[in-house]
Amino acid sequence: MLSGCHADHFSPCSCSLRFCPRSVSLASPGMEDSLTRPSSPAGLSCYIAVSQLLGLTVIAMTGAWMGQYRGGIAWESALQFNVHPLCMVIGMVFLQGDALLVYRVFRNETKRSAKILHGLLHVFALVIALVGVIAVFDYHRKKGFADMYSLHSWCGIAAFSLYFIQWLMGFSFFLFPGASFSLRSRYKPQHVFFGVFLLVLSIVTCLLGIKELLLFSIQATYSSFVPEGILANVLGLLLIGFGLVIGYILTRDEWKRPPLAEELALSMDFKTLTKGESPSGSQ
To answer: What's the half-sphere exposure (Cβ side, CA atoms, 13 Å) at 41?
Structure first.
């Protein structure tokens, strides 16, 4: 009965039985799982590390600027304004940028886990940025200063408002159950585009804010290459560098997160249930 199954390991199996010893996989479940998990593409880890180094340096330099040259940070004093630039850099630049990188960094985790982390980072960014917005409005109210007259303030309130709307839309379409697959597929390109756009707008707003603060505080000596002016200029260049590295990572198609095998199966089932279109390939 077993004569059809040849002894030569590399010869084709002509066994008429439904079970043949050579059909049994010799790999353990853990080995099979590791084979299906894509490895990190070459160069991605390096760029991720550079982005984090730039982001943390930007935060440290902003804190040093406020501490060394602007007197420090406090809520119930004239130093309340200094809360604003630090919170906006942390929230609207660093955390927002890191949230955009979630699908590039966490490549082997489940899609839902990546979505939750992506959304939570945006929540933290919004909360910290909100503290910064409240700080500057409260400071202006106490000092009797006018609000919302400069280009920096217009860009800033637009960036924060659109960021909040972007989060609400993302939660409604991708985390809150009920949206059909076809609806998610149609909205996804807009969600990705506005995510990158809002990071760019946030960095541009920070650059406008740096320039505005320098002109208000050291206008008379700015042209003399004073240390505070040099520090602020370097901070602006690092902000641009952070945005460029994040943008480069996001625009490399080969660095996109490939869907795992189980996610493809679930996507097909979800597509069938909602009568949408075929699932897209990667994030």
So the answer is: 15
Distance CA 202, CA 158 (A): 9
Given a contact cutoff of 8 angstroms between Cβ atoms, the answer to whether 283 and 103 are in contact is yes
Is residue 13 a contact partner of residue 22, using CB atoms and an 8 Å limit? yes
Phi and psi at residue 85, in whole multiples of 5°?
Answer: -65, -35
pLDDT of residue 272: 55
Q: Which residues contact 242 (CB under 8 A, 6 or more apart)?
A: 51, 54, 55, 58, 93, 94, 97, 203
Could you read off the pLDDT of 185-239 as tens digits, one per residue?
899 999 999 999 999 999 999 999 999 999 999 999 999 999 999 999 999 999 9
115-119, 179-183, 195-199, 218-222 — which is least confidently predicted? 179-183
What per-residue confidence (pLDDT) applies to 36?
Answer: 52
Query: What φ, ψ does residue 103 adopt, rounded to 5°?
Result: -75, -15
Q: Do residues 93 and 202 touch, judged by C-beta distance below 8 A?
A: yes
- Give yes or no for a contact between 157 and 148, defined as CB atoms under 8 angstroms apart: yes
> In degrees rounded to 5, what are phi and psi of residue 42?
-65, 130
Residue 182 has a pLDDT of 85
Q: How far from chain centre, in Å, is Cα 195?
A: 8
The distance of Cα 211 from the centroid of its chain, to the nearest Å, equals: 26
Q: What is the CA radius of gyration of the chain?
A: 26
User: Do residues 107 and 38 make contact, with C-beta atoms less than 8 angstroms apart?
Assistant: yes
Region of 276 (left: φ > 0; alpha: ψ -120 to 50; beta: rest) is beta
Is 55 a residue whose pLDDT tops 70? yes
62 Cβ contact list (under 8 Å, min separation 6): 85, 86, 89, 235
